[in-house]
């Protein structure tokens, strides 16, 4: 009997319960770390981007006023 691809690729490896638990724990830790980093970046970068937005608005107003006055 010749083996086809399905039989060749199918292995008898089954992860142990400890391996499965370790994978789940790593996933939970990764999600928690990602959430903390996201919250920190949101708390720090949001005011910076808001300040940059105000700066761009003020500079745009100055340029528009200068353009109107020089017509």
Descriptive notes:
The chain has two helices and no strands. The protein is 82% helix and 0% strand. The chain has one domain (18-70). The relative contact order is 0.05. It has 71 residues and is an all-alpha fold.
Radius of gyration: 29 Å
Instruction: Quote the average pLDDT.
Output: 83
Strand content: under 5%
Helix fraction, binned, reads: over 70%
Main beta sheet: strand number and arrangement?
Answer: none
Shape: rod-shaped
Helical segment tally? 2
Number of domains: 1
Question: Would you kindly provide a brief summary of this structure?
Answer:
82% of the residues lie in helices and 0% in strands. The protein has two helices and no strands. Keywords: Membrane, Transmembrane, Transmembrane helix.
Question: What attributes characterize this protein structure?
Answer:
rod-shaped, 71 residues, mainly alpha
Architecture blueprint of SSEs:
Elements: H1 5-9, H2 17-69
Keywords: Membrane, Transmembrane, Transmembrane helix
Transmembrane segments: 25-45, 52-69
């Amino acid at each position: 009997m010749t083996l086809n691809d399905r039989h060749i690729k199918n292995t008898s490896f089954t992860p142990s319960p400890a391996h499965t638990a370790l994978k789940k724990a790593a996933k939970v830790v990764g999600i928690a770390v990602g959430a903390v980093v996201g919250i920190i970046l949101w708390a720090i970068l949001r005011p910076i981007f808001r300040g940059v937005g105000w700066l761009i608005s003020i500079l745009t107003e100055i340029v528009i006023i200068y353009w109107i006055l020089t017509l």
